Amino acid sequence: MKKLLPALFLATILALSFGCEEEECISNCGTITDDAILSALCESTDGYSLTIRNECSNNLETFCIYYSDWIGAYVGNQFCITNVTSW
Question: In the chain, what are the domain boundaries?
């Protein structure tokens, strides 16, 4: 019985270590790192843009947005872009 308990414990630890797989994080949200008016880049939205650091990948991406969204978006706040899955 004393030999069975450590073997069972070891088998459980091994099963858990091989059975756990980290799920891929997909997010369209992140932290605003910059807000700017970039007339040349964002002509369709009168130049309003946000640069956002993705909460999963840590990548930076600049998005063109409308004034109504831009006016309430502050550097350091969370923001989600609805027409993309992740970046």
Answer: 24-80
State the residue for tokens 């109504």: 68
In DSSP notation, the chain reads: -TTHHHHHHHHHHHHHHHH--PPPP--SEEEEEEEEE-TTT-GGGTTEEEEEEETTT--EEEEE--HHHHTT--TTSEEE-TT-S--
Which residues, other chains included, contact 73 with Cβ-Cβ below 8 Å and sequence gap of 6+?
Answer: 32, 35, 50, 65, 79
**pTM, whole model, 2 decimals?**
0.70
Please give the Cα distance from 26 to 21 (Å, whole number).
15
pLDDT tens by residue, the chain, 87 residues: 566 666 666 666 666 666 556 678 889 999 999 999 988 888 888 899 999 999 999 999 999 999 999 999 999 999 999 988 888
